[in-house]
Amino acid sequence: MPEALAVRLAEVRERIARAATRAGRRPLAITLVGVSKRQPAEAVATLVALGLSHCGENFVQEAREKIPRVEALLAAGVPAPRWHFVGRLQRNKAKLAVQLFDVVEAVDRLELAEALSVSAAAAGRTLEVLLQVNVSAEPQKGGATPEALAPLVEAVSRLAALRLVGLMTVPAASEHPEATRPAFARLRELRDGLCLGMPGLTLPELSMGMSADFEVAIEEGASIVRVGSALFGARGGPT
Q1: Which numeric CATH code is attached to 2-230?
Q2: Is 204 left (phi over 0), alpha (psi -120 to 50) or beta?
Q3: In the prediction, which pLDDT does 235 show?
């Protein structure tokens, strides 16, 4: 298992580097988040020991069990990863999410942002957040509409215990990576337009791209890619 994980990590890093080079970007400007939904803590800890410094989880309840196990498995001197929450978050889970995660990537409504800010303030910390945008207009997916994004950015930017650092999207699923390119380009355009229209606003992070299409996302400006199966193998299966 460790050997297979090491090979996959090296392959993903090489693919990131090639995509960044094609786009005239520095490979080190891309943050790889290893998404470990339904993967064992042992596999996550192995990848962290190999140098994976950002990990992502989709479910708060799973993360509550897994994160302490991963960190307990790390050898002395191996730093714990930064933990990203990348799934849909219920407002009543905001307090627990603040306790577990360094970054919440899927904020899609003001009520959730306010709950996170209250919990972060009570914990005496500032929480990094990204706003999820439903650029593909899929009714079954979370995310603010592009039309609602500007007022949401303004409101979230005023919440003292949150630091708004960027935007995130999950495009419509497709067997062809190129089919997701317009969604990624649209998110970049939305970010650039917001920053032009709001003096002082900086949104350095664009979280977009998963195992099937992260290279296209990097070519379109992704600074964070969320990679699961390409690192871990099939969910819940052997690694």
Answers
A1: 3.20.20.10
A2: alpha
A3: 64
What pLDDT does residue 237 have? 44
Alpha helices, H only, the chain: 2-22, 41-49, 60-73, 94-100, 110-122, 146-157, 181-197, 214-219, 229-232
- The pLDDT averaged over each successive group of 10 residues in the chain (239 residues) is 93 98 97 96 97 98 98 96 96 97 97 98 98 88 92 97 98 90 97 95 97 97 97 66
β-pairing, 205-207 vs 82-85, is unpaired
Q: How many CB atoms lie within 10 A of CB 20?
A: 19
Q: How far apart are CA 210 and CA 22, in angstroms?
A: 18
Buried b (16+ CB within 10 A) or exposed e, 68-107: eebbeebeeeeeebebbbbbbbeeebbbebbebbbbbbbb
The confidence score (pLDDT) of residue 236 equals: 52
